[in-house]
Amino acid sequence: MDYKAFVEDQIASIRETVGTGIAINALSGGVDSSVVTVLGHRSLGARLKTVFIENALMRKGEPERIVKIFAKMRIPVQLVDARAEFLSALKGLTDPEEKRHAITHTFYSKVFGRLVRETGATFLLHGTILTDIEETVAGIKRQHNILAQVGINPEKEYGYRVLEPLQTLRKDGVRKVARTLGLPAEITKRIPFPGPALATRIVGEVTEERLEIVREATAIVEKELAKTRAFQYLAVLLNDKATGIRENKREFGQIIVVRCINSVDARTATPTKLPWEKLLRISKQITAIKGVNRCLYDLTPKPPATVEYI
Ligand code: XMP
């Protein structure tokens, strides 16, 4: 595939579709939304409003880091604090699909609805990729960023049209486009991270306290495994507890699962054979997080498991 031609075609197509209108896009810092941000910015310049929605589900230090990277490329990104809205929408929910739905609804309808009205945008640029569409259509999972494919008319329901310039590409193709666009390696080489963010790594209710635990564990896993060539690695908080001993006292504590997989496009995956020493180092740090007394390594391929836990 000619990725330069792909970029030119997409820029021409975004320009033609948006015309003199205003478009908006949400940047999460992942490779998909980063590519869409650059494509949109090259197509529309200041008529593209890029926002980073702080939804309380992000990794440690993430919002500031991403805004900085794009500032270096002279692409302004507005940070929108919607933490309270997401946390209240997730309150009390334990069913995976209900949690995903609450995030989708809060994101597109509530927060975006408001931003669209404020900016006058009539188009939303979105980083949906082919795998998201296929898995949603196949009923394997309702991906957070699929609307038209599951029969939601965003124009009718939310008041804007959605453009998905990456919908013919898989992850490997998106990375190639990212390099073609000159995005820095810290973006192009980044491991995938899901739209609903850390909520996909909490089994059971998503609360501020539980997010804090999984955020810490994620930071440890990402730091320790940064040099592996694995496709993706993550930490998950289970909705169960186990007995342990801390400072000579029995403690009923939290359980964290570490997952590290090899894959080409996330449609199938196999667990990575990590060095034992590495696993022990990770376990030691994770069980130093307050309230966590067990750390497990997930040996399941996809299928039958998925990558994420919800
Ligand atoms: P699963 O868990 O379905 O994940 O095996 C496959 C790949 O997709 C990512 N993922 C998502 N990405 N929105 C996204 O943008 C989502 O709702 C979502 N769910 C899963 C996951 O991290 C893995 O790389």
Protein described:
This protein has helices at residues 3-18, 31-44, 62-72, 83-90, 96-119, 130-137, 154-158, 171-180, 185-188, 208-225, 276-286, and strands at 23-26, 48-54, 77-81, 123-125, 161-163, 232-246, 249-262, 270-271, 292-297. The protein has 310 residues and is an alpha/beta fold. The strands form two sheets. It has a five-stranded parallel β-sheet, sandwiched between helices. A hairpin with a 2-residue loop joins strand 6 and strand 7. The radius of gyration is 20 Å and the shape is globular.
The quaternary organization reads as single chain
- Average residue-wise pLDDT: 93
Radius of gyration (CA) equals: 20 Å
Summarize the biggest pleated sheet: 5 strands, parallel
Bound molecules: xanthosine-5'-monophosphate
Order of helices and strands: HEHEHEHHEHHEHHHEEEHE
Count of DSSP-assigned helices: 11
**Which regions contain 5 or more consecutive residues with pLDDT less than 50?**
none
Structure class: alpha/beta
Record the strand order, biggest sheet.
3-2-1-4-5
In whole angstroms, the N-to-C terminal distance is 34 Å
The overall strand count is 9
Q: Percent of residues in helical segments?
A: 40-55%
User: β content, as a range?
Assistant: 15-25%
> Quick one: overall form?
globular
